[in-house]
Specification:
This protein is an alpha/beta fold. It is 29% helix and 28% strand. It has two domains: 155 residues, Udp-n-acetylmuramoylalanyl-d-glutamate--2,6- Diaminopimelate Ligase, Chain: A, domain 1, CATH 3.40.1390; 167 residues, 3-Layer(aba) Sandwich (Rossmann fold), CATH 3.40.50.300.
Length: 336
């Protein structure tokens, strides 16, 4: 969840969003972050940039964090405030003193930057105030809705909370499957077997998972670790070079966790033969289905993982084989 500076954001999106820098370049180091807390009135800040009239007030109550991107909002301000035709017309329609009050309130919330979209004429008071307070002011010819949507999608993915799990992450039959388990249980060997059967590697050893939507977790490899897998006895293998580009995938949504576990004979015999070992694991606030797959000599784990994945896809579509079996097994009482 590393924050990004306005200068870096501008550099990345200047061409795509047709951005030009109008004022406040000295504030280019302001950060857009997932953790911005401010006091009422925008006075007490985590940032080191304070408006000239703002004074710290230790008695102020801390307010919730600001949203990332959105159209002009003075009640629930955004870190990136976007002004389109409607917002600019609102400002231009105010009397001069009222306009100055609105601009002072807008800048008092210390936005990371302000973007005026649709090539709207920027009020001179806004330019001067942004330059004075070192608030980056950008302009674009693109619609405000597109700017808001693009930046929200980019920043949400960039600033999403990330967790690293031990295991091998694969695309198996179109869905993301994490093979988990203790070291030495055979995760990498199983992953290699699945790759030879046409499935694809996403990440080995320490895949990173981030929440990109309320119920969607994206998994990918850590920086510089794409394409590689470690297999005991063989060392590091480059899957892309060995099996081709079709054997790897850069990212995938997590849909299933398969936990590989060695069980003694007693625990193995006690497994529920009808329901199996289905449960859920809470990850980043999302309940992810998890299956425990016993590891034992003679078991074809690749086939079992494929079967477990297909069965899970059926469950997601609404079909439950256990419930179907139980319904068919009910013996109707004979009529007297």
């Amino acid at each position: 969840m590393k924050p990004i500076s306005v200068r870096a954001l501008f550099s990345i999106h200047a061409e795509k969003l047709a951005l030009t820098w109008i004022a406040g370049e000295r504030g280019g180091d302001r950060l857009v972050t997932a953790d911005v807390f401010r006091s009422q009135g925008g006075r007490v800040l985590k940032d080191d940039i304070i408006t000239p009239e703002a004074q710290p007030d230790s008695a102020c109550q801390i307010a919730p964090s600001q949203a990332l991107v959105g159209h002009l909002n003075l009640i629930h301000p955004n870190q990136v405030q976007v002004l389109g035709y409607t917002e600019v017309q609102y400002l231009m329609g105010l009397r001069e003193l009222s306009r100055e009050d609105v601009i002072r309130q807008l800048l008092g919330h210390q936005p990371a930057c302000i973007i005026v979209a649709e090539d709207q004429i920027i009020p001179e008071q806004l330019k001067k105030a942004c330059e004075r307070t070192r608030t980056p002011l950008l302009r674009s010819a693109i619609s405000s809705n597109k700017i808001t949507d693009d930046l929200r999608f980019y920043l949400t993915a960039l600033l999403a909370e990330v967790v690293t799990l031990h295991g091998v992450y694969l695309e198996v039959i179109t869905i993301g499957v994490l093979l988990a388990g203790k070291p030495g249980v055979g995760k990498s060997e199983l992953a290699l077997d699945l790759i030879t059967r046409g499935h694809r590697l996403v990440a080995d050893d320490a895949p990173e998972f981030s929440l990109i939507a309320p119920d969607t977790i994206k998994g990918t490899a850590s920086q510089g670790m794409h394409d590689f897998i470690e297999v005991r006895g063989l060392g590091i293998i480059n899957v892309r070079e060995l099996f081709g580009a079709g054997a790897v995938k850069s990212e995938k949504f997590l849909r299933l966790i398969i936990n590989l576990e060695r069980l003694d004979s007693d625990r193995f015999l006690k497994l529920d033969r009808l329901q199996g070992s289905y449960r859920t694991r809470s990850l980043l606030g999302v309940e992810v289905p998890e299956i425990t797959l016993p590891v034992a000599p003679g078991r074809n784990l690749a086939v079992l993982v494929e079967c477990a994945t297909r069965n899970h896809i059926l469950r997601m579509s609404g079909y439950n084989a256990t419930e179907d079996f139980m319904a068919r097994s009910v013996i109707e009482p004979k009529a007297p």
